[in-house]
Design goal:
Elements: H1 9-17, E1 27-32, E2 38-44, E3 55-59, H2 70-78, E4 82-86, H3 110-124, E5 132-137, H4 139-150, E6 157-161, H5 174-186, H6 205-211, H7 215-218, H8 220-227, H9 239-252, E7 265-270, H10 278-287, E8 291-296, H11 308-321
Parallel strand pairs: 3-4, 3-5, 5-6, 6-7, 7-8
Antiparallel strand pairs: 1-2, 2-4
Helix pairs in contact: 1-2, 3-4, 5-9
């Protein structure tokens, strides 16, 4: 990070040390979705800041929850931004569609987009300072892209961390994965785990090798589950979740879809990602009218849980995307 840029090394180090401690002014609550389901959210108002520069709104990836973003909440607060976040339906402490909380199941990804709109209407508009900047990881970034398409006036910009534009199939043709998920759901086995997935297990070091080089940050998720609330946990994906995720990816990749998203968007790509399809990310970013893609060299899928060096690249890219000192002005992008 070049001299004079923010956040400073001291800010980054302080946030790292406080990454398991929510800010003192944090507010956790629930709002009712359009179907009455209870959705968990949080606001981090940066109350010590006299005049905030805007609000960063976090959406987590699959299995994740609000607390995983606390390290970056501290940084944004220190930079003068308020923050907010919500647990997506089916994970965290938001409504679960299936009675077995370990099974990651959704009826449709479309509901996620409606939920985010209700989040804006009930918890953000006229309650948090503008501009509104969405920031998500993986499946959360996928939801952000679809939200920007359907509700183009709600957010001013977005920062997408390893967005799920398509799921990496590990060499298996997408048609086979899609077809198997469809058949399993059709015959009533949509709630079964996909191969290799199980109920929640603490540790999961086999997964760590695909997600991050940083063992300590990888353990943050288990820390919150075991010390805060076991209900934060969710296990493996079901066939129905996978089917709906792939259907939603098809919508996202449809001709003309990306071109209709005019919001300024920064896409941060993990060069060593094994979870989502990097080529699909690149292709989509090329079609975003105001899109910018930055590759984080050496990083795996959970870029925000990566090592200090990788995270420094993230903040370098963010600082080039928006003015962190004076506050964002998206009219010049």
């Amino acid at each position: 990070m070049t001299e004079g840029k923010v956040p400073t090394p001291e800010m980054l180090a302080a946030a790292k040390n406080k990454r398991r401690e929510a800010p003192e002014d944090a507010i956790f609550n629930y709002f009712n979705a359009s179907d009455g389901a209870q959705m968990r959210f949080a606001r981090f108002p940066a109350s010590k800041v006299v005049e905030t520069k805007g609000t960063i709104i976090f959406l987590p990836g699959r299995t994740e929850f609000i607390e995983k973003f606390i390290e970056d909440v501290h940084i944004w607060n220190d930079l003068g931004f308020a923050c907010a976040a919500m647990d997506l339906r089916g994970q965290g402490m938001s409504h679960r569609e299936h009675p077995n909380r370990d099974k990651h199941y959704v009826k449709t990804f479309d509901q996620h987009i409606d939920d985010v709109h209700e989040f804006f209407e009930q918890a953000l508009v006229n309650k948090m300072p503008k501009p509104f900047i969405l920031m998500g990881h993986s499946a959360g970034s996928h939801v952000i892209l679809r939200f920007l398409h359907d509700y183009p006036r709600d957010a001013d910009a977005a920062i997408l961390i390893a967005p799920m534009v398509r799921i990496a199939a590990g060499g298996m043709p997408q048609a086979i994965t899609h077809g198997l998920s469809y058949i399993m759901s059709l015959i009533g086995l949509g709630t079964a785990y996909v191969p290799g997935h199980t109920g929640f297990k603490e540790g999961r070091w086999g997964w760590r090798r695909k997600l991050t080089h940083d063992d300590a940050r990888f353990e943050d998720e288990d820390f919150f589950i075991t010390t805060k609330d076991r209900r934060l946990a969710v296990g493996g994906a079901t066939y129905k979740w996978l089917l709906e995720a792939m259907r939603s990816c098809d919508k996202l990749n449809a001709s003309g879809y990306a071109e209709a998203i005019g919001t300024p968007v920064l896409v941060l790509q993990a060069s060593e990602d094994q979870i989502v399809d990097n080529q699909a990310q690149t292709d989509l970013a090329d079609h975003l009218p105001n899109g910018r893609l930055v590759r984080i060299d050496g990083a795996m899928h959970e870029i925000l849980k990566e090592t200090d060096d990788h995270r420094a690249q993230v903040w370098e890219a963010i600082g080039d995307f928006i003015d962190l000192k004076r506050g964002p002005d998206f009219s010049v992008l």
